[in-house]
Design brief:
Blueprint: H1 2-15, E1 19-28, E2 33-41, E3 59-64, E4 67-72, E5 76-82, E6 88-93, E7 102-108, E8 113-120, E9 127-135, E10 138-142, H2 148-155, H3 163-168, H4 176-187
Length: 188
């Protein structure tokens, strides 16, 4: 009986996960711009960490005039906001990666783009993240199952002077800024 009560209390406490409304600039596919709040779930233990799945669902909930309105991701061109850690974030509709959801634009250069796609795991509900580079029609995922150095060298073959930078990046503990710096040099 005690175990059942403890389980009930645990489930009850998780059902009231923290929520935070973040002021955002939403650009729709018809070029209409709306400044509204987006309700994000936040981590139970880290209150400044948002759940990106909020924007990676097929329908995105936006609070317009304190009323919740759900828009299909296909109607949204871009959402810009500053998260609870004061990091500027941009989510875009990018059909090359996902035709039904928004993806986060990490770097959007002239020659190359880096996006993160967020998906909910089917079994445990955790968040799965896919990092993908796009160069024209070429789609190059970054993962632990791929030799990222080799793939980046192939992707940036016309700029061999970048090879030492590609070699110096630690792909096991990839820092966004290291890869962004490399992509910026490639775009020069």
């Amino acid at each position: 009986m005690k175990n059942l009560l403890a389980l009930f209390l645990l489930v009850y406490s998780f059902s009231f996960a923290q929520k935070s409304e973040i002021e955002s600039k939403i650009t729709f596919s018809d070029n209409r711009i709306v400044n509204a709040k987006i309700p994000f779930k936040t981590n139970l233990f880290e209150s400044d960490q948002i759940d990106e799945i909020t924007l990676s669902d097929k329908k995105v909930k936006i609070l317009e005039n304190e009323k919740a309105v759900k828009y299909p991701a296909t109607e949204i061109q871009k959402i810009e906001f500053t998260d609870l850690k004061n990091k500027p974030r941009t989510f875009i509709y990018f059909p090359a990666e996902s035709t039904k959801t928004l993806v986060e634009l990490i770097y959007g250069g002239k020659k190359i783009k880096w996006v993160k796609a967020y998906r909910r795991h089917g079994y445990d509900g955790s968040t799965l993240v896919s990092d993908v580079l796009f160069k024209g029609d070429i789609r190059q995922p970054l993962s632990i199952l791929v030799n990222n150095r080799k793939k980046l060298k192939q992707l940036m073959v016309e700029k061999p002077e970048l090879e030492p930078l590609i070699e110096n990046i630690n792909y096991n503990r990839l820092k966004e800024q290291d890869l962004i710096d490399l992509l910026k040099k490639y775009d020069e």
